[in-house]
Write a structure and sequence with these properties.
mainly beta
């Protein structure tokens, strides 16, 4: 068995749809969310693989401020199922980078990777964790939650951003009808990202939940509005085939 070596990969993306502010990753001087303390959760799917998938996830009654399908998340800190801790925001100006932390053996074979996005978003962070040797794929999101009373109740809005699988980003778009309390979203599919993710759901208590479809797989999605007046949103889509799991974040246009 080779020696494990951590590594850092910074991948630059042009984020035309994200708002200003936010930070990069990895510092111990990070500023925690100030609106609502995120909830640390784990849905019990740790250990699922494409060969032995977890049971079909159930849609929660109320969308949590933070959620992960594996490991734990609290504020801007994600702890992987292996127990490695990553602080995803620090002080200073972000260059709009997606950060990927890789764990490899001394022969450079990959063991796991943790990625998160997006530096230029002010209130939202979302990401993925992949364990290559076990074929395990987990996703997570967190943010400065919008108080339920501050989510608009009239009008419509479009949110544009990205979805993520492993460290691969793909364009995402969400159409919101605040009066009808509905949300419809799509993460575009392509050869690198994989099959499209289509989502339909309802808004309640500052968040949203609903059904998701990717290829032949039916699953669920959940998320939350972030920022003082719902300037951003973040969430995840979850499937029994964990290779189709995706996290996402988007900014109101």
């Amino acid at each position: 068995m080779g020696i494990l070596k951590p590594g850092l990969l910074l991948t630059a993306f042009v984020l035309t749809a994200c708002g200003g502010g936010g930070g990069g990753g990895g510092g111990s001087d990070s500023t925690p969310p100030v609106t609502t303390a995120p909830v640390q959760t784990d849905n019990g799917n740790t250990g699922a693989t494409p060969e032995t998938p977890a049971t079909t996830p159930e849609t929660p009654a109320t969308a949590p401020v933070s959620l992960t399908t594996g490991g734990t998340i609290s504020g801007w800190t994600y702890t992987t199922p292996e127990g490695r801790e990553y602080v995803m925001r620090g002080t200073g100006i972000s260059a709009g980078l997606t950060q990927t932390q890789r764990l490899t053996r001394d022969d450079h074979s990959p063991v796991s990777s943790t990625s998160w996005c997006c530096g230029r978003m002010s209130y939202t962070t979302f990401g993925t964790w992949t364990q290559y040797e076990k074929g395990q794929h987990e996703v997570f999101y967190t943010g400065d939650a919008t108080l339920a009373a501050n989510v608009p109740t009239q009008g419509t809005a479009t949110y544009v951003g990205y979805g993520m699988r492993e460290n691969i980003l793909s364009d995402a778009r969400f159409n919101i009808d605040f009066a009808a309390k509905t949300i419809n979203g799509t993460i575009a599919g392509n050869e690198v990202f994989g099959s499209e993710v289509a989502m339909q759901g309802n808004i309640a208590n500052g968040g949203f939940t609903g059904s998701a479809q990717s290829g032949e797989q039916a699953g669920t999605f959940t998320g939350h509005f972030n920022g003082p007046t719902a300037e951003e949103l973040g969430g995840l889509a979850q499937f029994a085939d964990t290779t189709k799991n995706a996290s996402f974040g988007a900014t109101r246009q």
